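Recap from last week: sequence in, structure out.
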Amino acid sequence: MKKKWLIYGGVALLAVLYVLLESVNLSPLYFEGALFWCILITIYVAIYALQKFGEFSFQQGKNPFHYVPNQKFPRWVKVLLLAPWLFLVVFYVFSSPLISWRAYRDQLGEPQTSAFTSDIQAVDTSQIPVVDQELAYTLAQKKLGDAEQISLGSQVTLGEPTIQMVNEELVWVVPLYHSGFFQWITNLEGTPGYIVVSATNEKDVRYVDNHPIKYQPNSYLWQKLDRYTRFTSAPFTGITDYSFELDDSGQPYWIVTTYSNKRGFSLPEATGVILVNATTGEHHRYALGEQPQWVDRVQPEDFVRNQITHKGEYVHGIFNFSDREKYQPSEGQAIIYNGGNCYLFTGLTSIGSDDSTIGFILVDMVTKESHFYQMSGATEEAAQRSAEGKVQHLGYEATFPIILNVDGQPTYFMTLKDKSGLVKQYSMVSVINYNTVGVGETIQDALLDYRRGLQNDGTQLDEGTISDTTKETTAAVTRFSPEIVEGSTVYKFMVGGSEKIFVAESSQSQKLALTAVGDQVHVVYLDSEDGICTVTEFENLSIGQ
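Predicted structure tokens:
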């Protein structure tokens, strides 16, 4: 009897250790929980049955272990052994698209559908991201190696950069993790903080060391993030997507999405978030829609992308062998911001189509509200190849593009990086005709080159829709110089006491060629933080007076 209970206790101890080490979800309504209980029940029933209906013996020889059954297992034992696995199989089959394809198709909901018009701007043009995740990591790594942080190099490592809006500024935030067990044991209060990299200015990188990160993926025991979150907030709930975000005061939090499955073990649906203070461990659970305003993302990216895929795959059911009206998301995706809201952006292409898109979709990463904009043209991949072809002699690589509205034209915007991963140029490619490409060392230069290409193609432009920062001025010209760019004349000049450099194409006014220093001019232009301003209207008031 004592031996039997020792066996039961040993199995229980191993099960508890496994649950603690792997942070297992204990609910049988999730696959990992169901599998855990199936195995545990099977082991216990098997141990009981083997001891109840047979005897173990140990002898010397090649086969020292012997089991002699006293009788056959009764039916109830077989039922107990089979029932958990039958439950697992039935739930798994019920989860498949073969049974529940409508649930797969309809999970995303119906997006608001509209054509791409001149009044649509998918991205906040005052916060155009020019730093991608890879570059943000590189810049943070460089910052970590600076002299003031040189002692940290052997103590910490960088986590995954997360793009977010903090106090109306678009930034990448990179947490600092323990680099190993001994580094953790000697710094139990956590790593010093995090690094902030501006998403719109690669020269703006800040090291923040007054917000220690005690709870993190690279900690151990009770400070390990997934274990701490599981057993303090969600032992029987699905949790995923540990996103590192800052509140408006700069305090770091882990935003953990809670979810439930809509069909068996499949179709996970976000139900809310758990906020874990990365410094103190204080945690709060919120239902969907009740989270604080500063939380940018609730919907995990893989949830949203899978739902887009399912909607296109099962548009006409599971037996649509002709692929009628099927579509799929592009190979890449991007997180963008507009109006203070966070969206997942990706293009949509018809099944079997190589380089053409049927439009693009934006999905709100909090509410999951989706917007589909119909638009025929090139895919993101085709636009990237076109941009790279423009600078093939330089060997630059294009980042995954985002959609801008440039003068009423749907336009892919991307950065061009060298082999070191640093931004060297910017590019704009027409969605409608990906042979129309503009490149430049600044966004304004790329815009100017792109507009020149649109005009050469005979495209009718609705000027000014790329930016809401259109301004005008009337002043005397203080400096004036023509420049030949790819066979076309471009004029650069300064006016009044301003330090801004105005860039105008010769096609905008015949008076540009006759303009001289001292002439009074009226200029309408797109303002820019870097001081390089694209001229949209030009009038020399001194000529003809």
